[in-house]
Specification:
The complex is a heterodimer of chains A (115) and B (116). In chain A, the strands form 2 sheets. In chain A, strands 2, 4, 5, 6, 9, 10 and 11 form a 7-stranded mixed sheet that branches. In chain A, a hairpin with a 6-residue loop joins strand 5 and strand 6. Chain A has 115 residues and is mainly beta. Chain B is mainly β. Chain B contains no helices and 12 strands. Chain B starts with a strand and ends with a strand. The chains are: A mainly beta (115), B mainly beta (116). At the A-B interface, strand 5, strand 9 and strand 10 of A face strand 5, strand 6, strand 10 and strand 11 of B.
Chain lengths: 115, 116
């Protein structure tokens, strides 16, 4: 089984709908992240969490919210989806206390299309 | 200003030959980490190799090596003996430690095509 899983893997939705993307990990890592990838661009950080009670905004948090329900679960919500949120979304994890290594391990990605 | 620059949008290499993917970075931190990730057409991001700013030796992982030139702020990925399965997007990334908060910045990527 994969160490970092994301559900759903693909989602098509309409403008204005609320969407939740879920991430679970079995790596035992404290740190979790949400990124989005747009065609021709690298990854950009949306939110990150260093433990269950810690939530931090990343580079592009507007229009998104997150919930860290447990060490192993980190959800990303789009409260009212808009077409320019169409992208590939990645969840990632890393282990605490390994700076600057802090290697991140990625889930398989969720392809979201907002019509 | 771009913190991670990958100047090669696309690269071609003949199978079994070596290829170098370029990456330059910009930081004022003394402590930082440099990473390379591979993204095949299936979409997942696969960690390949890591280099710390204080590491004196270039990192190697199997057929991957990182040519780290600190003074030039470059961290090029070298893939030896290319295989067809190496065809993918490759992303260079940097983790800055002292900027406050967390920041890993990714470059725009280089698409590698391996020819049979």
């Amino acid at each position: 089984d994969a160490d970092v899983t994301q559900t759903p893997r693909n989602r098509i939705t309409k403008t204005g709908k609320r969407i939740m993307l879920e991430c679970s990990q079995t790596k035992g890592h404290d740190r979790m992240y949400w990124y989005r990838q747009d065609p021709g661009l690298g990854l950009r950080l949306i939110y990150y969490s260093f433990d269950v009670k810690d939530i931090n905004k990343g580079e592009i948090s507007d229009g998104y919210s997150v919930s860290r329900q447990a060490q192993a679960k980190f959800s990303l919500s789009l409260e009212s989806a808009i077409p320019n949120q169409t992208a590939l979304y990645f969840c990632a994890t890393s282990e605490t206390g390994t700076e600057p290594t802090d290697t991140q391990y990625f889930g398989p990605g969720t392809r979201l299309t907002v019509l | 200003a771009q913190k991670i620059t990958q100047t090669q949008p696309g690269m071609f290499v003949q199978e079994k030959e070596a290829v170098t993917l370029d990456c330059t970075y910009d930081t004022s931190d003394q402590s930082y980490g440099l990473f390379w990730y591979k993204q095949p057409s299936s979409g997942e991001m696969i960690f390949l190799i890591y280099q710390g700013s204080y590491d004196e030796q270039n990192a190697t992982e199997g057929r991957y090596s990182l040519n780290f030139q600190k003074a030039r702020k470059s961290a090029n990925l070298v893939i030896s003996a290319s295989q067809l399965g190496d065809s993918a997007m490759y992303f260079c990334a940097m983790r800055e430690v002292n900027t406050g908060g967390f920041k890993t910045i990714f470059g725009a990527g280089t698409r590698l095509f391996v020819k049979a």
